[in-house]
Automatic annotation (TrEMBL):
This is Glycine zipper domain-containing protein. Residues 1-24 form the signal peptide. Residues 122-151 are annotated as: Disordered. It comes from Acinetobacter larvae. Residues 34-71 form the Glycine zipper domain. Residues 133-151 have a biased composition (Basic residues). Keywords: Signal.
Length: 151
């Protein structure tokens, strides 16, 4: 029980540290809060429902942490990545290292998944903003159609 108390207090401390630091990179902040949310969700889920509860708690905690820390445009992708990474990391870590391995795997999986989802969403938004002008025909003007003929 003392290990769980130390683990929970350290996650709360690190959560306060990362959320109050305003100069952190966006992907680092999303990864850190998703990892902390996943560990807390795993601990709470394990107390409430055993191993299945821990698996569900790691997914919900990772998704919640990623959604809180990310921008509005990137929230869905980061939450999906954090949830899937947290659940997958918990399952793999539990097989390799038992309960402690499950906690560590949950944190690492949620951090990686949320950072990846956040980055993919940012890249997609950048690509869509670059292609908008060509799709809408602003470069040809309103007098010409897509093949260059006058309307």
């Amino acid at each position: 029980m003392q290990v769980k108390t130390i683990l929970l207090s350290s996650t709360i401390f690190l959560g306060a540290l990362f959320s109050s630091h305003s100069f952190a990179d966006n992907s680092a902040r999303v990864a850190a809060t998703s990892a902390l949310g996943s560990v807390v969700g795993t601990a709470l889920g394990k107390e409430m429902g055993g191993n299945t509860g821990a698996l569900i708690g790691s997914a919900v905690g990772g998704a919640g942490g990623a959604a809180v820390a990310s921008k509005r445009q990137d929230r869905s992708s980061a939450a999906i990545g954090g949830g899937l990474g947290g659940a997958g990391g918990y399952a793999a870590g539990k097989q390799v290292g038992g309960t402690t391995g499950g906690y560590i795997g949950s944190a690492l999986g949620a951090a990686g998944g949320s950072a990846l989802g956040n980055k993919i969403s940012q890249d997609n938004r950048y690509e869509n903003s670059r292609n908008n002008g060509y799709r809408k025909g602003h470069y040809r003007g309103h007098k010409y159609n897509a093949r260059g003929y006058r309307r």
